[in-house]
Amino acid sequence: MKQLTEHTTEGHYQPESLQVRRLGSKHKNETETDEARSRPLLVTFPDEDKKASVMKNLYKLKTKGEPFREMIIKHDMSREDREKERLLQKEAREKTQQEQTSNFVYIVRGRPGERQIIKVKKRSKMTNRNQTHVLEK
After folding, report:
1. Euclidean distance between the first and final Cα of the chain, in Å?
2. Domain span including residue 93
3. Is residue 54 assigned to a domain?
4. Is 132 inside any structural domain?
5. pLDDT per position as a tens digit, 46-105
6. Please, are residues 89 and 108 in contact by the beta-carbon 8 Å criterion?
7. What angle do CA 56, 57, 60 make, to 5 degrees?
8. Is residue 9 part of a domain?
9. In the structure, what pLDDT confidence band is assigned to residue 134 with cuts at 50, 70 and 90?
10. 136 found inside a domain
């Protein structure tokens, strides 16, 4: 946990004030692999700003090596929140399918509890940024 907060807060935050709790029940079979034994952690931050800072910088973990590459980190949501999220995602997909031009997509963005559907320009799927488009006559 200490390494995680170091990489996502650039050393500006002390992980000692975090509350960390393992969720789920312990596995009784000792022969199981580490992957089978992995259980989620519930991490409680002292305030919303600290949590927002860590969540904002999660993209940095992809370059930090193997232990972080396999991690999945999400906001903790109640059943109501998860249902609202599903409905927003479904609505965004439907709006994208109804869009006349294929230059834009609808996505769900925002902090938990304040999420909304926004329209964004679709990214081109170019593998090399220096690649040029050739127009046919």
Report:
1. 57
2. 79-121
3. yes
4. no
5. 888 888 888 888 787 777 777 777 777 888 888 998 899 999 999 999 999 998 777 889
6. yes
7. 150
8. yes
9. very low
10. no
